[in-house]
Amino acid sequence: VTIAAVHVRSWQAAYRGLLPQAYLDGMDPHEHEGRWRDILDATSWPTTGVLVAVPDSSAGSGSEAVVGFAFFGPSRDGDSDTATVAELYTLYLDPDVWRRRMGTLLLQAVHDQVRRAGFTTATAWVLDTNTAARSFYEHHAWHFDGATTPHDWGDFVVTDVRYRTALS
Ligand SMILES: CC(C)(COP(=O)(O)OP(=O)(O)OC[C@H]1O[C@@H](n2cnc3c(N)ncnc32)[C@H](O)[C@@H]1OP(=O)(O)O)[C@@H](O)C(=O)NCCC(=O)NCCS
What H or E segment, with its residue span, contains residue 158? Predict the structure, then answer.
């Protein structure tokens, strides 16, 4: 599957019961491909980039083997210093590999990369009802920092909460 397909599959599984089903059913990997091309074009190493997870068995066999990805860059939040605060914009794994440490490997790779790029803190916005992701971040020494924001998806509004970790 391609990155866009992983994105849609992960979304549909992670947000079932948390976001309106009609919205999840309507997600189209083809639309996401265009958005992914824009993201890849925006890559500005070492401060903005995408890391992908590829199983050992399929290393070298091309983008079809991607089972997860993380997109990071400087914080987009008005209250944060873009030179020191990195943001993990998206972190998604294919549901077939959940709970098999791929997320841990990706998050560690993000930590290493943003630290190398000179950031001292990392943040991420998480849907408040996404208890799996919240547990995952807490397991990796991230914490809810008290910031919340309404997230307007057009047809519905949800609440996102911000997680944070110090990169020592
Ligand atoms: C969240 C996500 C990235 C975690 O990756 P993963 O590879 O499944 O997680 P790992 O196997 O590395 O888990 C490490 C630890 O995190 C915690 N954790 C992970 N998934 C969890 C879950 N569903 N429920 C509770 N705790 C969880 C556990 O403490 C786990 O350790 P354990 O398995 O020994 O109990 C992945 O499940 C995913 O892509 N989910 C859907 C998309 C999403 O919500 N992304 C985050 C958006 S901000």
Answer: strand 157-166
**Beta carbon of 21 within 6 Å of any ligand 1 atom:** no
**Ligand 1 nearest-atom number relative to CA 92:** 39
Say how far apart CA 166 and CA 113 lie, in whole Å. Answer: 14
Distance CA 132, CA 35 (A): 26
User: Would the pLDDT of 18 be above 60?
Assistant: yes
75: Cβ contacts below 8 Å, ≥ 6 apart: 81, 82, 85, 86, 87, 123
Could you tell me the CA-to-CA distances from 42 to 17, 50, 63, 98, 125 in Å, in that order? Answer: 32, 10, 18, 28, 20
Peptide bond connecting 74 to the previous residue in cis, omega within 30 degrees of 0: no
pLDDT tens-digit readout, 90-148: 999 999 999 999 999 999 999 999 999 999 999 999 999 999 999 999 999 999 999 99
CB 6 near ligand 1, within 6 Å: no
Between the CA of 134 and the centroid of ligand 1 the distance, in Å, is: 8
Residue 18: phi, psi to the nearest 5?
-110, -35
91 lines ligand 1 (CB under 6 A): yes
**98: which 2 tokens?**
């959940």
